[in-house]
Write a structure and sequence with these properties.
By secondary structure, the chain is an all-alpha fold. 73% of the residues lie in helices and 0% in strands.
Length: 109
């Protein structure tokens, strides 16, 4: 499977921009972190030797773009980023609440 590394409007390559291309955009963005790791695995000679031994032992195929390894890595990355954003939101709300309480206490003095 070939990986498009730059986003294009016609993601499925049918020659026209249609609604089905929008769904392919989500898949392209979702799998991007995992596909980068798969690219590193395929391009690193030392890792490739270990990877081929593991692939032989597990009797599976080498990692592919958009495959199960890319899915797992991408899922972990996106969940991790989501949790970071939630944590930032909570931290900003707590900071704003403290700032507001401090401001109100200064006004009452």
């Amino acid at each position: 499977m070939q990986r498009l590394w730059k986003p294009v409007f016609d993601m499925n390559g049918d020659g026209s921009f249609t609604f089905s291309d929008v769904g392919d955009w989500f898949g392209w963005w979702f799998y991007y972190p995992g596909d980068v790791v798969v690219y590193w695995i395929r391009s690193a000679k030392e890792i490739d030797k270990v990877s081929s031994n593991i692939v032989g032992f597990l009797e599976t195929a080498p990692p592919e773009y958009g495959g199960w390894l890319a899915f797992l890595i991408s899922l972990i990355v996106w969940v991790w980023l989501f949790l970071i954003l939630v944590g930032c939101k909570v931290a900003l709300e707590e900071w704003y609440a403290k700032l507001r309480a401090k401001s109100e206490s200064m006004e009452s003095d």
